[in-house]
Amino acid sequence: MMNLNDYVSVGQNSMYSKVIQHSDTSEAYSSGLKNLLATPKLIHMAIESGIQTIDPYLPDEYISVGISTSFTHTAATSLGMTVTVRTTVIAVEEHDILLEIKAWDEQGDIGHGLHKRAVLTKKEIEEKAAERARFLINRQS
Question: Domains of the chain (ranges plus CATH)?
Answer without folding.
Answer: 4-140 (3.10.129.10)
